């Protein structure tokens, strides 16, 4: 056997071994993760801090997180926003990641107020939209669309109360979540605790690879 033939066989063997090693990794990258599908994200169209109309369709092709908050909230919203900042920092510069922060007090939270709030907060990701619109529309979106409580209550600090949960949406516009220790989908992530932030961060990475 000539030296050229031996070299050819040697190279072919290396390519074969590499292929056997690499194929599972390539396949895994394009496989769906095991995060359960909860259902389609509710359709919405709202106005962001730059006065631009933003809908759920603008987020297609992106993995994004949804929260309901308001800028004058004296209780849980600052914690939620700070935890969103952690997600922004973890995926900063990734065009396939986004955030939708929807105000439940839109009569006060105009685009200008939201723009100032975003600046003070340090929100810099170009896919982080602070959204406002009609109050009843937004409350219906939260309660009937996402099944997350939001409403007015004059007896609580700030005059509004709402859920402290984050919703995770995949590139196809489907709400996804991990399972609990009993094998049931948690549906939403705790936006107030570090454990919830770390969990959603891990699952965002997983969905970005789908």
From TrEMBL:
Database matches in CDD domains: SCO
Transmembrane segments: 7-24
One matching Pfam family: SCO1-SenC
Keywords assigned: Copper, Membrane, Transmembrane, Transmembrane helix
Superkingdom of the source species: Bacteria
UniProt cross-references to SUPFAM superfamilies, sorted A to Z: Thioredoxin-like
Domain Thioredoxin: residue ranges: 35-202
Family: Belongs to the SCO1/2 family.
Protein's name in the database: SCO family protein
Protein source organism: Flavobacterium rhizosphaerae
């Amino acid at each position: 056997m000539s030296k050229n033939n031996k070299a050819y066989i040697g190279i072919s063997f290396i390519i074969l071994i590499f292929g056997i090693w690499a194929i599972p990794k390539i396949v895994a990258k394009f496989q769906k993760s095991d995060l359960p599908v909860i259902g389609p994200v509710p359709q919405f169209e709202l106005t962001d801090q730059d006065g631009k109309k933003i809908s759920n369709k603008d987020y297609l092709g992106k993995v994004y997180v949804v929260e309901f908050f308001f800028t004058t909230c004296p209780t849980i919203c600052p914690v939620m926003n700070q935890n969103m900042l952690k997600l922004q920092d973890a995926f900063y510069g990734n065009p396939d990641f986004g955030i939708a922060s929807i105000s439940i007090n839109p009569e006060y939270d105009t685009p200008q107020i939201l723009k100032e709030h975003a600046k003070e907060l340090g929100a810099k990701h170009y896919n982080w939209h602070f959204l406002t619109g009609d109050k009843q529309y937004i409350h219906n979106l939260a309660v009937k669309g996402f099944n997350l409580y939001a409403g007015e209550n004059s007896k609580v600090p700030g005059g509004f109360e709402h859920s402290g949960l984050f919703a995770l949406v995949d590139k196809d516009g489907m709400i996804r979540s991990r399972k609990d220790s009993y094998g049931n989908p948690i549906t939403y992530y705790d936006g107030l605790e570090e454990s919830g932030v770390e969990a959603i961060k891990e699952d965002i990475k997983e969905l970005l690879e789908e």
